[in-house]
Each structure stands twice: as structure tokens, then as C-alpha cells.
Specification:
With 70 residues, the chain is mainly alpha-helical. The protein has two helices and two strands, in the order H-H-E-E. Strand 1 and strand 2 form a beta hairpin.
């Protein structure tokens, strides 16, 4: 394909490319990002560079209940 042929193809597909940039691609990228976040949450840690598990929550001691105090 020559540069002139490529330029002609771009002008022919201009509307399709603009619609993809404005509508189609943001939806697809958003879906991929949401799925990635949900997978991280389900696995209990970040999986970017292997699974880096989140620290476990330390249970706090129960608070005393004093009768008659607001």
C-alpha cells in the first residue's frame, strides 16, 4: 500500500474512525477497566505484577457497654 492509497483509505473511513474514538472505544476501555478492578477485588489483591494480597483486617476489641451513659 502506497502512502497515497493509505491517505485515501483514511479519508474514506474518517467518519467510522471518529465514531469509534467518541463512542465505541471508550465503552470497551471502560468495560476492560471495570472487569480488571472487579477481578482484583474478587482475588483480594492487586494482580498487576503477580498477586499482591491486601493486608488482613485486625479485629478491634469489643467496646464496653456502660448502662445509663448516653
Amino acid at each position: 500500500m502506497t502512502p497515497d492509497q493509505f491517505q485515501q483509505l483514511l479519508t474514506e473511513k474518517k467518519a467510522e474512525i471518529e465514531q469509534a474514538l467518541r463512542r465505541t472505544l471508550p465503552v470497551k476501555v471502560g468495560r476492560i477497566a471495570k472487569d480488571h478492578f472487579q477481578d482484583n477485588f474478587r482475588q483480594g489483591g492487586f494482580q498487576d505484577n503477580g498477586l499482591q494480597a491486601w493486608a488482613r483486617k485486625v479485629a478491634s476489641p469489643p467496646r464496653p457497654c456502660i448502662v445509663g451513659m448516653p
